[in-house]
Structures are given as structure tokens and as C-alpha cells.
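A student in our group prepared the protein record below, which I am reviewing. This is what I was given:
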Amino acid sequence: MKLASIHRYPVKSTSGHTVARAEVEPWGLAGDRRFLVVDGDGAMLTARKLPRLLACVPELDGDALVLTGPHAPPLRVLPAAAPRTTVRVWRNDVELTDCGDEPAAWLSSLLDRPARLVWLDDPTRRPVNPDYGRADDRVSLADAYPLLLTTTASLSRLDDWIAETAAERGEEPPAPLDMRRFRPSVVVDGVRTPFDEDSWKRIRIGEVDFRVVKGCDRCVLPTVDPVTHVSGKEPTRTLARHRRWDGKVWFGVNLIPDARGTIAQGDPVTVL
């Protein structure tokens, strides 16, 4: 097995981009999900309810964040010391730093509603769910855990199931799903059995070891096309037929790194 691709999302719930190599830190890939968009009242905004967020394409340029979108020229943001605000990030209250009025105006224009950009200046503030992690495990602004792993074999099987669902309903066969719908951190190729990752407990990517702490229960976001931002029924409709338990649908597994290190596209992946 090998590492097929690495994906980084500098701003939570916006578009991501692939990188050839990445530094692994205890709380996730370096530069991953350190920024967040909030509304005028300081509440977290996500593409689950605002798919327009996916039109924002953030990239890192040294210490700066560059925001690109269809509505305005690119904006360069250099985070600095500023007043902090408390934001509820799912089950955690997290102290985040406001990035100022210029990115707020840029994002408000994109979303056609008041919005501000905030930054996690200290990534050690937020613990993972203690039911699945250790007391000192931390996560940036990802939903729950530092990394998400998916496999091409599982996506191929899901595509087959979706085609079967469409045929049963007399619908046109859909195009294969874009893996970006699932917002993985790392994608593994060469897995012989689809969904074999469900049984993994520890893996090594390159020279970095990870704990596989739990499967990933999926929200509505995979039903949003990452290019058109239009919502549909798949893959949730078909996952509910084949991958539903505990009242949820599942695709991918969550990882917690056991050490710092560098991973690169093409690295071997070993189940430990």
C-alpha cells in the first residue's frame, strides 16, 4: 500500500488543496484547519449549511494565508496578536484570535452575510474526545481528530454500490465520486479489500506511526459536489444501505499521530 495523496484545509469547511509532502504535528498536518469562519455573533460557520464556503480556496504562503474566491481579488492575511474570542467548536469552547476587518469584509462579500476569520494561534488548546484519545492528545479545528484517512478501494466499492442503486431506480448511472467530498487528510492506494481500514488499529505512513482510533461517521457534507457546490442524495443514500450502524453512516477512519515527522506522496503504508 502507498500514500496516494495528501490534502490540507487551512480554513475549516472551505476548499482544500493537495500537497506533495507535509509535516505531521501532534494536532494534525502542519497548517491544517488553523483558521475558522464565524458569523456576526461569533458562531462557527460550516459548509454543511453554507456550501458557498467551498468557493473560498485558501493556501499558505509562508506565514501568510492567501484567500482566493470568485467574487474579489485574492486576499493575503498575515495573522498577528489580537483580541481573542471564545468560539464553540462542536463540543469545545476554544479561544481564537480575530484576524481583522479586511478578511471579514472579504468573507462577508463572498457569503452575502456578516462573517469574520478567526485563528487558532495555539494548537494545544483543544483536546480530542477522551473516549477515543489520551489525555494529552490534541486537535486543531478539525471536527474531532487530527487526520482522516480514506482509501481508493473503498471509494471504488462505494461507486459500484451507487451505480447499483441508480440502476434499481431506473436512473442514469452517475459519474464516479470525487474523493474530495469526504475531505480526507490522507488517501491510501493499494488496499486489497474495500473497507479493510475499518479493522486497522495502528499504521505507519513513511516513518510516522498513527493510532486508528475510530471510524468516521459522516455528516451531510459529502452530498455537496466540491466543484458545483450543489447538494444531492449521494453518497448518503447508498451508504445508508451498506454502511449504516449506530444510527449513522460511515466512511474513512480517524487517526492520531504518535510522533512528529514528514509524510510524502508515494510513501509506503504499513498496518502495524
In short: The longest helix spans residues 152-168.
